[in-house]
């Protein structure tokens, strides 16, 4: 009976998410608007509560729907961040108004958690890379201002327009923060060992490599080029949140040359990702 109840719960969840996917797919634009905001708010509210769903066991049709929905979420998130980056940059002191962003508190809490987990396993890093930083580099900003005040942050995004927006935002930061933040227009696949080997910590954003094989390829690329002993923080998803973001397979992290140190799944109403902290395994004779 319990198994039947769980199956029914999952079936109803997938049915509701499928209806939302169909409605979102018909939108003429994913830029912020009352209709777009309402649909994505309902989608997030549906996916955030704890759920017994295992997305790896979904039907092929549901798997295809989920993959397309993640791409739609990625595009909508890009539009939302660009929209608010432009709004914030219009202020004389943009960083004083970051809380206007709808998910500001979630980023504050996520960066605090990630720093706490990192601090358990590694010394304060001298250099951090954030791959997939986007037009609102909240994680780098919060870490630089609240937790890692002596660390240099290199933010990578393959979209030049996103980097331009982020750069304009950071230009208003105090000198101590501004001087420690740089922005680079690059794809993760193009980053070399000479670049990646200089970082003590690398963050991989949730939407870098949206399909599972793309994510695995990105992790493998990092594993071949990061310095031995460096930490990797990978954002993932769990339960119904996996309809919003890709799930990272722990075996892909291990195959990439990393030791998994810790994993965190949010259980409350926080609208942020799971994350995994790993360490690049030292290989004898590795250069």
From TrEMBL:
This chain's function reads: Synthesizes nicotianamine, a polyamine which serves as a sensor for the physiological iron status within the plant, and/or might be involved in the transport of iron.
GO MF, one term, reads: nicotianamine synthase activity
Reaction equation(s) it catalyzes: 3 S-adenosyl-L-methionine = nicotianamine + 3 S-methyl-5'-thioadenosine + 3 H(+)
| PROSITE patterns in UniProt | NAS (PS51142)
Origin organism is Lolium multiflorum
Broad class of enzyme this protein falls into:
transferase
- Which Enzyme Commission numbers does its entry carry? 2.5.1.43
The UniProt keywords, alphabetically, are: S-adenosyl-L-methionine, Transferase
GO biological-process terms attached to the record: nicotianamine biosynthetic process
Q: Which family does it belong to?
A: Belongs to the nicotianamine synthase (NAS)-like family.
What protein name applies here? Answer: Nicotianamine synthase
Enumerate the SUPFAM superfamilies for this protein: S-adenosyl-L-methionine-dependent methyltransferases
